[in-house]
Every structure is written in C-alpha cells, then in structure tokens.
Amino acid sequence: MPVEIDAATPYNFNKRYSEPAVSPRKPPIMNKLCRQVSIESPGPTIKDCVFSFEVPVPDVPPNGARIRVVCAGACYRIRRSPSISSVSSTGSVSSLSTELSLDQGLGGSVVGSLPRSSGSFSGTCNMPQSPAHHGVRDGALFPGYEVAGIVESLGAEVEDNAAIQEGDRVVLYPYDGVPHGYAEFIIVHELKYLVKIPDSVSLPVAAMLPTGALLAMNTVFNAHQYVEDILHQRGENGVCKILIVGTGGLALWAMRIASHHFKDTKMRVQLTVASLKDEGFLMAKEFKTVNVVQWSEDLYERQLIERTTDACNGEVDIVIDFGTTSRSLHRSLQCLSKGGVVFMCSEVAEKLMPKFSRLADERQQRIKAVDMGTIEQLQELVKLVGNGEIEPPPHTVFPAEEACKVMEKLCNSEIQGRAILQFYDAD
Amino acid sequence: MRQTEQILGGIEGLDTAEEQVTVSVPIRERCKDLILTDEVIAELMRRIARDVEKGLGKDTHKEAVIKCFITYVQDLPNGTERGEFLALDLGGTNFRVLLIHLGQNHFDMQSKIYAIPQSIMIGSGEQLFDHIAECLANFMKEHDVYSHKLPLGFTFSFPLQQLGLTKGLLETWTKGFKCSGVVGNDVVQLLKDAIKRRGDIQIQVCAILNDTTGTLMSCAWKNHNCRIGLIVGTGCNVCYVEKTENCELFDGDVNAKPDCIVNTEWGAFGSDGSLDIVITEYDREIDENSINAGKQLFEKMISGMYMGELVRLALVRFTKDKLLFGGQGSDFLFKRGNFFTKFVSEIESDKRGSFINCREVLGELGLAHATEQDCANVRYICECVSRRAAHLVSAGIAVLINKMKEPSLTVGVDGSVYRFHPHFHDLMVEKIKQLILPGIKFDLMLSEDGSGRGAALVAAVACREN
C-alpha cells in the first residue's frame, strides 16, 4: 500500500493543487502532483538549504521509464544561482514549471560538469561560500544524487523483453540531466542508466551506492595505480601508506572499498583513518587492520600534523580527503610525503586547486580530482555489496519530510554513517 | 619577533590592502574592558602574591585558592643522570607513552600518541586507567621492553595534592575530564591497580608530577638556572623552586635539602572574587557554561581551552549589536565552541594589513560576507583577548620572580598557546620586564617536551638518589 507523506510541512504553499487521492488500482494520471525535496549546499544558515514543494508527475519518456522513488541518499546539490533560493516565493504552478524546465535545460550532472563560475582568491565568490560544517569536513554531507526505487512505468517504445521491467527495484546512475531534486516520481530517458538491485540488497542500502559509494570506489581505483607504483619501488617489504580523512559516509565507504580492494596486499598497504569525531574513532576501529588518528578540531594544525605523522610512522604517500575546506587540504598536504598525491572530489578540487597548486608544487605533491565513477563501476558495486563482499556503512532511514532536520544533524555529524530519506515504504 | 606563517596556504599579496584598515572606533571602545591598565595589573600582582603566601602557609592553606602544592621534587638535573626510563603523559587533549634513554649530554626518545575518546574522558576512572595501562602495554610490546621492569615518571597534568614523590591525590578534574572515582584518590595507586589487573607488564613508578614540573625539569637539564616551569596551553599553571623552609606543609625534614618545587595550581586564582576587577561579561558566560563553574577563573581568562570561545562571544555580541558583519551572523558563529583558539593564532599570523587567514577562518564560519573593516575588527578583538592573557600570565610570573630573589633565572615554558601564538612570547617578555624588580635578569625558554622528557628526568633524578 502506498503511504501518503504527511502534507503539513513548513515549506508547503498556502494552497494545495493536488487532485483527491486516486484509488490505488488506477495508475497516476498526467496532471497529478507529487512532492519534491530539494537540498542545496548548506549555507550560513542550515534552514535555508532544504526546499519542499509540489511538482507535476512527469510524463514517461518513450524510450525511458518513470521511477517511483522509495529511498534517496541525503546529498546536496551544488547551488547554481541565487534565484533558486527564492523558489518558495513563486506564486503559481505554471511559473514554477517554467523555472524547473529552464533549470533542467542547463544539463550537467550535480557532481561532474556543472557550469563553472570562478571565485576570486580572496574568498569573494559569485557562489555563496559554504561554511565548514562539521559534516561537510567529515564527508558525512556531500554533493550528489542518490535514488533507489521501483520502475513504475515503461515508455511506449520500450521493447517488451527489455532487461528492465515494471516493478523492478533499481538505482539510477546519476547521468548528466538527472532531475535537480528528489521527487516521488522521476523519469529517466534511457533504460541504460538504471541498474537492477538484487534481492539481497535493501533499497536504503542501494540508495547509498550511486554517489557516495561510487565516488569512493572511483577514488580507490584512481589510487590503485599509485599504490602499485609505490609498492614496486619499495621492494618486497615496502609499505604504501594511505590516509583517509573523516569517518562520514564517503570516508566509511572508502575505508571499506580500500580494505576490500587491497586485501591481497593488506600487510603492505597501511590504511589510516583521520577521525574527526569520537564516534568515528569507534566506527573506524571495527577494522582491525585500520590505524586511527584523531583529528580534534580544537587542536592547532601543527599538533594535528605531528600527531598524524606519528601515528603513521612518518608522512603518508596517499591521502583521500573528502573534506571540502582549505584547512582540510592544507592539513592533508602537510601530512603527505614529497611526491605524494591527494585525491579529492573534482568539484572541490577545482575550487581549491588555485590556492594550493604552488604549495603542492614546492613539494612535488599532486592534487588529483576524482569524478564520480562510471555506470560499470556502479554495476560492480551492486554486485560486491549484493555478494556481501563489501559491507555497507551504518545508515539511518528517515521520513522524507524530516529532510530539514536530517540536514541539520548531518551538518553536525550527528548521524553515524549515512542518512537515507524514505518516500515510500516498499521493502 | 617570530616569523609569521601563512597557515592556510593562502597566496601572498593578493589580499593586501592599499591602505591599511584599522579597527573601527566603536569596536575599539567596546574592547576597552579587555585591556588591563598598569594599576589593575599592580593590584592583581598584590593579590596573587598574597594568595601564594596563603597557599604555602600551614594555617592558611585550607582556605587558600592558590594551593601551592608541594611536589616533593627537591633536586634538579645535574647532568649525571643515566639509564632507560618510561614516561606517561596524561593531560590536555592527548595521551602519550615515551621511552627515554639518558646518556651524558645525550637524550634519545621514542614516543607514541594515543587518543582518549570523549566517552573515556567522562567515564569511570577504572576505564581511564585501564585504557592507559593498555596503551602502555602496547607501547612496551612495540619497543621490545615488554618484559623489562623500568622506572616510570608519570606526568599527570591536573590539580594534585602530592603527599610524596609517588603519591598524589586528585584535587579536581579540569580540561574537560570528569572521570568518576578519581577525585580524592591516589592516581599512582589507580595506575598500579590497572597494571595489576592486566598482569602482563611491570613498572616501577618513581614519581608523579604535573606538566609544569616536567617543563621545569626539562629546561633545567639544559639550562641550570631554570627555576620556573610554566604551561600556557589547554590549561594554565606554573611551578617554581621554593625554599623548603617556607613550605610549611612539607612532611619531612625541611633541613635535609634547601629547595622544593611547588606546584601553585594558580589556575584557581579568582575563585574567591579576587578577579572581579577584570572579569567581563564574556568571562562570566564562559564560566557559567563550563563543567566547573565558579572554579579555575584565572585559567579561563588565559588558557587555550577558552580563548577561542572568549573571542567568539565578543564576535556574537558585536554582531548582534550590528557592529560586525552588517549585523548578519551565521548558525556556525552562534554555536558554542565553534571558534577554536587556533583561529586566534591564525588570524594574528596574517601580515599587518593582510587578511588571508582571517578570511579563511571567517569563511569556515559562514561569514564570507565580512568586509575588510570586519576583518580588521576581528583581528583587533583577537589581539585584545590574547594580549590580556599574556599580561595576566606575566603578572603572575613577575610575582614569582620577585619572590625568589634570584639575580638571574630562566622560565621554562610549554603549552600550545605559548608555542603557537605568533606574539605571545614577545608580549610576555615585554610585560614581565616592566613588572619585575630592577636588577633581575630573566629569560623565557621554550621547553622541549617537558611532559615527556621532564617525567623521565624526575624519575632519573629519583633513581640517582636510590
């Protein structure tokens, strides 16, 4: 039975435009409205980053499908323009639709290829600068698009024997052109962007895969070549040291994927996790082979660097840093050996690279931007998690209407592991 | 002058103002209560001197707020110490185990830092000491001294009533610790009990000391006229060499040795109202929200645990009064604990007229809309808070220097505020010079690992006796 989300939210319009609820036996009709939650990057005030409004149920594309969204990972979308903040002031559905259409027309995935606007070095940016919320530094909160749901309708021109059928449980690979919010119904123009989920994977777990796990996997894959080079240079007893920053969702995935990926060399790949919170300390300790160093933010930078190099028995060769601040990158570079490499999200790398390229050059260090991974990697992930070879991080499921509260908790790293928004109880 | 450092990797020159922006008049006015006049400092010195005497006196000790605990450390290093020693360093925000080899003019050290999770900091004392014993056992295993019985010096940087060189009762927890079952108990015995519960390692606890004693010993090993050990870090405390005959609570033969190190625990100064002449609304708010309200008032005006919060409270006040950031703050700024003390050092490390670090810090706080005038104001507020801290410490140090009547002496200093703040050393030197009696020469010497090396030296000196 579909469960209607409580309509009373602080962000609702004064008037509802939806038709009376139809009988569950009838398919939804074209002019029906559904609910959408949009999460922008957290600005100076957390409450300003979550928007909730109603949008038309989209028509099914002829070669694609309409997905009923069951679970969505709590990620934010990079804020594109100030005008999106004023969407709540839109007075009518028609202009709202216009706004949505214009926005969709821009294209670009939320992670990979947004239109760039360059900020000046002094910090006066065209885009409002995100403060260093704890959850952002920890990798608990990150930009992305993560949807898991059920195929509700197939397009008219989809072949009857297609690999994807109505009723299938799927995740959506975040291709260029994904919708910019989490609506109860979303469309995909081609079936190739859908990945079927095996029965052994729950939809909340599946929802974690398309950005968080995928980005972490691609980061580990990018690091792989460097690891091999270092192990080769250092001979049979040499060790390659990797530091993973944070114990939020991204870092927890990176830890698990790296442990799995390098398990055959595990005595020679030394993983250290920099924990930004005490709970993270305990969480990281579940892996006995992982070293943990605590990055208490109240310590001076030099103390943290000394502590980290002490814990790692010297400088590290590779840093995986999902934090998004100058401070985080600066600290990572200080812990990194000459010739070492830092991997970070491409979105963040582009912003920080100009400030740090000279500093990195002085020590022959490299800052590598990592894009979200490929759909093949996502398929591989689904398989590995489905087989139980990689265990997902802890997560908590919240009703979608609590998105604002969830964001606040994520900003403060108060949720262990990932937060999943649930629109519909289907498992 | 210490060299300023571009802490956050900012690019030089891009943010240098053509004209230097200085603090605005309204902010300067509002910060006046953070500036100590000479008259106020002189009065504070009189009160500190009085309270030190009270702490030393048998009849007045009980009521004294500056306790002047006797450490029973009566010898400074003289260079003859030899051997292999363990040290434990518990205090501030981390915990270390060290293995130290002492030779003639040579010193070899290996150490490891262990985290103390928040849950243990506020859990039971048994859990705390079991955690310490486990770290110690792991360390001894890693360094192949697992089966050795080594002398150990235990640096325990909390207010301690020492009843002997190896016996200390915890007076009260500070610095965020709040383990149950420890206050009033002998922490050496608690450590021994934890080690016995393990049953795998053996140690000989030769001394328990705090970080100020360790700092003094560490500097004295290098510089034999070192007589004062000062910590300005997470907490703030000082110890100094007193005449044994003045230590009226000394339990033993006061004529056996002329000197004895006294741990003042001066962080508690002001609990009786002696600081009312300088306390501001920010200090009161910090005290009210601390886990030890009404205590350690002097420490709360000086130490790194509170300095950042002092600045934050001032920023919040001035933002709400529309003197900063156009009256528009951020959730981040308004949340307690979000302005770290290191931010103060980073902001004051900017070259004059430049606001690179300041902008980075304000950006992290969701205040990217700050103007250049705002940056100049924020820097000024930081300077007022850190300068006040330096002057308060200097007043106390001057009291001790004047009391000891040594013609020339060194003060060994450690602690994150002293170590990392770009101007703290110079602010202190300048102020102490003003406040000490004519004819005295002094120097401030940065201790190298007083908590670790100092603990080993105390154990070594104790072994030298045996």
UniProtKB/TrEMBL annotation, chain A:
Gene3D superfamilies: Medium-chain alcohol dehydrogenases, catalytic domain, NAD(P)-binding Rossmann-like Domain. The keyword Coiled coil does not apply. Residues 44-421 form the Enoyl reductase (ER) domain. Keywords: Metal-binding, Oxidoreductase, Zinc. One of its GO terms (molecular function) is oxidoreductase activity. Pfam families: ADH_zinc_N_2. InterPro entries: ER, GroES-like_sf, NAD(P)-bd_dom_sf, Zn_alcohol_dh. PANTHER family: L-THREONINE 3-DEHYDROGENASE. This is Quinone oxidoreductase isoform X1. It comes from Frankliniella occidentalis (Western flower thrips).
From TrEMBL, chain B:
Pathway: Carbohydrate metabolism; hexose metabolism; Carbohydrate degradation; glycolysis; D-glyceraldehyde 3-phosphate and glycerone phosphate from D-glucose: step 1/4. Residues 27-221 form the Hexokinase N-terminal domain. One of its GO terms (cellular component) is cytosol. CDD domains: ASKHA_NBD_HK_meta. Transmembrane segments: none annotated. One of its GO terms (biological process) is glucose metabolic process. Its EC number is 2.7.1.-. Keywords: ATP-binding, Glycolysis, Kinase, Nucleotide-binding, Transferase. SUPFAM superfamilies: Actin-like ATPase domain (SSF53067). It catalyses: D-glucose + ATP = D-glucose 6-phosphate + ADP + H(+); D-mannose + ATP = D-mannose 6-phosphate + ADP + H(+); D-fructose + ATP = D-fructose 6-phosphate + ADP + H(+); a D-hexose + ATP = a D-hexose 6-phosphate + ADP + H(+). One of its GO terms (molecular function) is glucokinase activity. Residues 227-461 form the Hexokinase C-terminal domain. Belongs to the hexokinase family. Catalyzes the phosphorylation of various hexoses to hexose 6-phosphate. This is Phosphotransferase. It comes from Frankliniella occidentalis (Western flower thrips). The gene is LOC113214981.
